[in-house]
Amino acid sequence: MTGVGKALPAQVVTNDHMADLVNTSDEWIATRTGIRRRRVLGPSQSFSDMAAQAGHNALVQAGRSAIDVDLLILATSTPEDLFGGATRVQRTLGAARAVAWDLTAACSGFVFALATASQYIQTGKYRTVLVVGAEVLSRWTNWQDRTTCVLFGDGAGAVLLEAASSPGLLDFELRSDGMGAEHLAIECQVEAVPLIGGMEATRGNFAPISMNGREVYRFAVQAVPDLIEKLLASNGFAATEVKGYFLHQANQRILDAVAHRLNVPIEQMASNIAHYGNTSSASVPLILDEWVGDGKLRPGDLIVLAGFGAGLSWGALIARWGRF
Asked: Which of 97, 80, 69 is nearest to 41 (CA)?
């Protein structure tokens, strides 16, 4: 991992703003989730531009240009086009040599995309892969549902992976369990469309985000630390050897529970959920970018990245940061 970047909408929606929309309060939201504010993309702003800006910033940090990118993977569940958003990001970025496609795994998407990218590098097929996680969950939020509208925000983050003589991405584990798919979803709703001779087709629309918060929390606090412990043990590392844990930012209580389970100081569990809320596939690169920008990571530092959420899906990845 040689570069990381982010891009965020300008609009900041605070918990006090949310209290004017629905029956809630700053104290209620912050106590239960850790969230104080979130960013929301405006109607005149572009998802593709935001995602491309994050990718550009990662390239600049790595000292690369868009023309160096062999493969671009866009991890998103909220593209501007159901046929895919990656090629639009490729076009905006100017990555003319890159093949580009979307990967949809919701809040696990960025980690799944990193794992996928690493395989192309390890086989020698591609040498430079840009992974972008971007979401505009505000477009699929019911702003009258206080159980969900307070949780989500918009943003984009990106990481550049490059081939190197010594491995940086050491190992990963990915999991899925479709038995819990209904616990967190943006489901397609269909209506009948008459054709001819008694035949019918259907027209689809997507419902706002629905979530069984209790079940998602229960799943996360058990499955995520289990997987991280397995990954560390199989690679011969103790939890305390990791410089920073970069988990999907869903709920501060989940981050605290995982830190407690791993028996590591809470300072090692990176958190920015107070500022951005749940940005799904963008959350891991957003918090990674903050740590790099603040000088908390040095080349060679051991890090763990983990995503979890809709699907249900979860995954963890162990790596060393930067060129070393």
From this structure: 80
